[in-house]
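Exercise 7b. Backbone tokens:
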């Protein structure tokens, strides 16, 4: 399994009762099969699944949101080697943005570990650059300033 995200939705009932909806499991492999059989993506999945010597980079566990404990990411492990291009795919609400927000320290995990080159993510200077899909260019900054910022 390459990616397994648990999505627990809660509905407010009368009073203070909460009803937990049925958990939905998303598997990246199922989504890939629905994506026009892209051979490059399938080849990457096979590579990651077959390479048992890769060191785990991220092990996020339950994340506390609001007053309720809610598992937003579960059982995610991946490794990105130097000079390797990496993409994280999944359906809406699967946790892709949450994973990137954890990697760039916008969110903190309640449990789990992240290592960059064998150094704990929270003990090292963050070495990941991230540019949101939203347009975030400022007129006051130069191109170099934007590159340094992101």
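Sequence design result:
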């Amino acid at each position: 399994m390459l990616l397994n995200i648990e999505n627990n939705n809660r509905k407010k009932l009368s009073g203070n009762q909460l009803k937990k909806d049925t958990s939905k499991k998303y598997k990246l492999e199922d989504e890939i099969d629905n994506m026009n059989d892209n051979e490059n993506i399938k080849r990457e999945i096979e590579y990651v699944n077959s390479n048992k010597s890769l060191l785990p980079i991220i092990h996020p566990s339950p994340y506390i949101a609001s007053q309720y404990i809610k598992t937003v990411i579960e059982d995610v492990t991946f490794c990105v080697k130097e000079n390797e291009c990496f993409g994280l795919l999944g359906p809406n609400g699967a946790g892709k943005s949450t994973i990137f927000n954890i990697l760039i320290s916008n969110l903190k995990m309640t449990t789990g570990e992240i290592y960059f080159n064998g150094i704990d993510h929270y003990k090292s200077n963050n070495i990941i650059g991230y540019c949101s899909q939203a347009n975030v260019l400022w007129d006051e900054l130069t191109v170099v300033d934007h590159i340094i910022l992101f």
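Instructor comment: The beta strands are 4-7, 10-12, 18-20, 24-27, 63-65, 68-70, 115-116, 119-120. The mean pLDDT is 64.
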